[in-house]
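User: Study the chain.
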Amino acid sequence: MRKTIVGIFISFLLLSFALKKETSWIRINQLGYLPQSVKVAVLGSKGTIEVKTFSLVDAKTDKTIFISDKITAKEAFGPFTTSFRLNFSDLKAKGEYYILAGNVKSPIFKIDDNVYDGTADFLLKYMRQQRCGYNPYLTDSCHLDDGYIVYNPGKNGQRIDVTGGWHDASDYLQYTATSANAVFQLLMSYRENPKSFTDAHQANGLPGPNGIPDIIDEAKFGMDWLLKMNPSPTEFYNQIADDRDHAGYRLPNHDSVVYHPELKGRPVYLASSKPQGYKKYKNRSTGLASTTGKYASAFALGANILKPFFPDYVKKLPNRAVDAFKYGQKYPGVSQTAPGGAPYFYEEENWHDDMELAAASLYKLTGKDNYKKNALNYATKEKISPWIGKDTARHYQYYPFLNAGHFELATAIENNEKEIVVNYYKKGLELLQERGENNPFLVGTPFIWCSNNFVTAAVTQCKLYRELTNDNQYLEMEAALRDWLFGCNPWGTSMIVGLPEDGDNPEDPHSSLNHLYNYQTDGGLVDGPVYGSIFNNLIGLKLHNVDAHAEFQSDYVVYHDDVGDYSTNEPTMDGTASLVYYLSSMENESRRIGHKKSELVYDKTRAIIRGDVNTKNINLVFTGHEFADGAENILNTLKKHNIKASFFLTGDFYRNPNFKGFIKQAVADGHYLGAHSDKHLLYNDWTKEKKRLVTYKEFKNDLNANYQEMEKFGVKKEDTPYFLPPYEWNDEYITQWAHRQKLTLINYTPGTLSHADYTTPDDKNYKDTRVIYNSILNHEADKNLNGFMLLSHIGTDTKRTDKFYLKLETLIQELDKRGYDFVSLKTLLEK
């Protein structure tokens, strides 16, 4: 065996000359790989090359850990003339690695149980950002006058309160089709993987726990809107606004579009079986089942999943579901969205899948056999999602992209009936596998608008089929589709904004929030690549910047990380919601084999106040504004014990000429230097209500001034994502405002008196060093200091002669004896 490995390694070295780094690339899943999962990277080259072996190297030691010849050559794809799949599934050891094939090196990636932890919750950031009505991201409201009724004889022009729900994408239109699908997907995600979700936000979306998982809060927010859009058993509204909305970049709370000279708000379209359109262009509606089926399934599932949280609220949902289903039976066909002044609309043509999902959901809710019979009947009418196997489709011609009805039905029936329904999924997967088997990424989905939504649907269908059957024959395709979304694609980029945080992901998405104010659309799944033929024929599309992925574009398929490309780089609400299930299921796979997610501790404002309570790690935190008499002692003590601490300093501290030597030395020693506000502002008064004393503009300007001073010492904002508020005092608005500045709010860990070292003898709250020191050790003995951010000050007023920083070395030595490690802030807070 040893001789074989040596031989392979020699072959690997001899072949290195054949690979040229500038023309060859290795693509990996930047999020990482679960130890037990299929693990494959793709090597693509613009030249004609051969690859016989590859190796995995430990990123920390640069030692070769694994050598393999499990390589499969594939056909040319996009910019790559030659391509190979490099399979390293046999390596299960956790760690950080990079791949070498000749002199071609991959990015660093992880193999670990935790790579999917928190990813499903991360996507909810985008859902909250898309909220209409009160928008927690902007801490402001929009579209409060929605709306006035159109296409409802006898009620045209009447006021209807439909404020709420989610904006569909980077525009502000709202559709029942996408929103009801999103509600169902969120509810299903929680039902299948409840432990993958946490409680970090209030019902209004602002930071702070409320005792309810965030995904449930988000699903209910969407459900509230669906109920408004269904005011009676015969009224099912389908859409708010039309393409008059496409009037340029603007924030939703500053929407300047006027739809009617006399009526407030935006038009609200009744779902209709007849064609609709604002001007000469009309849709091709034929019925109502596509819309009412979506209403019914969301209502039926909501009646079950929301009941433990909102028992009175759900009492109305079963009847709403039944009424919607009956209306769909009465009016079979599709109710498409309505165009405005251009011939663009969601051209949905299939509806049997919607009615199957509705019937299956009602069968689970009521147990009545007639719903099972209806579901089985509808299932036969759409065995395979119509887009599977096709190269082209009109915009949203076949929607939803995933037929969740087969899963709902199959999990409610048994024996031969179940086998028949499950086989419908199998046939679809066979087609996808056949279409993708010759390309290096195994992607058999079409590259049309919203191609990432098709990938999401395909990978979810793989997972649902696997859950239903324990059949793993599509496991490699599932892994390839998953990896595609996280960077194993020609462009080497994740398709989810901000995920992974330290990877290559969309930085310039098509969004007014990004374009106007550099607010990032974290968690949003972008549209994804399109065929070159589609991109080259789009009207009004112009890239704003130099194409960062230019060398990877091709006549076949393109993707641009550019705000100007609305075809490939626009995040979508329904695509994002649909990916939540799959990511939550991946986190759940680790939990099934005993993995426990690292949980940070937050306060009521959603500021991080503690690292993982299961590890004996501590980060020493120091703040400074006026005083720095302890600076030299602190730095010398930290250096002596090789400790990396965190210093949060005000702008006034950074610009003080007496403190510049300390700051330069702290930077040179590798400590974390962060912001603490420019002028040490008090953001909230000291009452229980925490009345805010600053506006967002004042907050932003003050914070930016702090960072401007930091940059003079080479400390950049993008490298210092954690912010500690002045006076260690804030509310949830400050936490959210910090998030809008791409910062994470932290605070010290309560429980000790370490932060009282600034008090002076004339202060009624004065605590001397002995009391402070004992409070720390007593807390450690009674509870523990696991994950602590232990805060004290760099200096104090001269009136305090009892300096706590003089006790720092003794404290470090004592806690070291008790088994604690002093780690960097990044290490403490990494999940």
Observations:
- Residues 1-21 have pLDDT under 50 and may be disordered.
- The longest strand covers residues 617-624.
- The two ends are 38 Å apart (CA to CA).
- DSSP finds 23 helices and 26 strands in the chain.
